[in-house]
């Protein structure tokens, strides 16, 4: 007797990179998967939670190298669900924050396939937190912006210019290739001394951190050879981090001497 295939797709957030930051619900979803379609994860150890006989398909996107187009990924998800049943679509961070998760869910549901969502710990908050940066802090920052540095048409988001005018913490993802433009916008608002942290490969063993100010961060990026994937944090809360406080105390003393 043939076993009836019951298609199901679970959209799972893999978190910021550290495999220990995967949620228990994500682990349970992976353990029941027949197929895992996964992005370019910061840590492949996460895939070990899927059964050994589960089909694993890499569908990630890297700069200049896309394994599949978004339309192809959508169709692969549906085809595998109809063929094998339980599909986990595994995406870095949280799939609903710059992850196109809602688009994928809508496509799958248009075929009448049940869908479920397991939120992930977003790098927007987790990566700064790993360096002791609280993106909101009483008396320092009442709110924060989370912005994609590069829009779908490969341009800098117009929201960055608006964010530069505010007193809020600004967290920019996918913005390293637009960093000179970002810095220019903050300089136009006379925020040259605003603290900046750039965290590359956050929460992983390969994590690198560069700290400075709006006026100095481009030189620091060059000196430390920082690159993507990285998160850019601009705001007074960076100075408040116990891990980074020493740098800013030294920086201020040098400014006073001048």
What is the compact description of this entry?
One of its GO terms (molecular function) is uroporphyrin-III C-methyltransferase activity. The protein is 31% helix and 21% strand. By secondary structure, the chain is α/β, with parallel strands linked by helices.
Report on this model:
This protein is of the alpha/beta class and 258 residues long. The chain has two domains: 8-118, Tetrapyrrole methylase, N-terminal domain (Cobalt-precorrin-4 Transmethylase, domain 1, 3-Layer(aba) Sandwich), CATH 3.40.1010.10; 123-257, Methyltransferase, Cobalt-precorrin-4 Transmethylase, Domain 2, CATH 3.30.950.10. It is 31% helix and 21% strand. The chain has nine helices and twelve strands. The chain has a five-stranded parallel β-sheet with strand order 3-2-6-1-7, with helices on both faces. Strands 8-9-12-10-11 form a five-stranded mixed β-sheet, sandwiched between helices. A two-stranded antiparallel sheet has the order 4-5. β8 (144-148), α5 (159-164) and β9 form a beta-alpha-beta unit. The longest helix has 15 residues, at 70-84. The radius of gyration is 20 Å and the shape is elongated. It starts with 7 loop residues before the first strand and ends with a helix. The model has no long low-confidence stretch (mean pLDDT 92).
What is the count of structural domains? Answer: 2
Strand order of the largest sheet: 3-2-6-1-7
Task: Please identify which CATH superfamily of the largest domain we are dealing with.
Answer: Tetrapyrrole methylase, C-terminal domain
Q: What number is the mean pLDDT?
A: 92
Which CATH C-level class of the largest domain is it? Alpha Beta
| Biggest sheet record | 5 strands, parallel
**Shape, principal axes of CA atoms:** elongated
Assembly state here?
Answer: single chain
Secondary-structure element pattern, one letter each: EHEEEEHEHEHEHEHEEHEHH
CATH topology of the largest domain: Methyltransferase, Cobalt-precorrin-4 Transmethylase, Domain 2
- Overall SS class: alpha/beta
Q: Could you give the count of β-strands?
A: 12
Low-confidence runs of at least 5 consecutive residues: none
Helix content: 25-40%
Helix count equals 9
> What share of the residues does DSSP label as strand, in percent?
15-25%
Q: Any guess at the CATH architecture of the largest domain?
A: 2-Layer Sandwich
Q: N- to C-terminal separation?
A: 84 Å
Output the radius of gyration.
Answer: 20 Å
């Amino acid at each position: 007797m043939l076993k009836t295939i019951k298609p199901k797709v679970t959209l799972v957030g893999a978190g910021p990179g550290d495999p220990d930051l995967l949620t228990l619900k994500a682990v349970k979803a992976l353990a029941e998967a027949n197929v895992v379609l996964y992005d370019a994860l910061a840590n492949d150890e996460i895939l070990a939670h899927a059964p050994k006989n589960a089909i694993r398909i890499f569908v990630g996107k890297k700069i200049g190298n896309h394994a599949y187009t978004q339309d192809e990924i959508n169709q692969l998800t549906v085809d595998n669900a109809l063929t094998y049943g339980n599909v986990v679509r595994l995406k870095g961070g949280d799939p609903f924050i710059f992850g196109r998760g809602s688009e994928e869910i809508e496509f799958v549901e248009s075929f009448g396939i049940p869908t479920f969502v397991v939120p992930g710990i977003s790098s927007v908050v987790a990566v700064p937190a790993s360096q002791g940066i609280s993106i909101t802090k009483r008396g320092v920052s009442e709110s924060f912006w989370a912005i994609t540095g590069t829009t779908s048409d490969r341009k800098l988001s117009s929201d960055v210019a608006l964010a530069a005018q505010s007193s809020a913490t600004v967290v920019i993802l996918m913005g390293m290739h637009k960093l000179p433009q970002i810095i220019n916008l903050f300089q136009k608002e006379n925020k040259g001394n605003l603290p900046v942290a750039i965290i590359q490969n956050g929460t992983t063993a390969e994590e690198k951190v560069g700290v400075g100010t709006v006026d100095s961060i481009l030189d620091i990026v060059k000196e430390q050879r920082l690159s993507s994937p990285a998160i850019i944090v601009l705001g007074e809360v960076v100075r408040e981090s116990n891990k980074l406080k020493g740098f800013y105390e030294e920086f201020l003393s040098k400014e006073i001497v001048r």
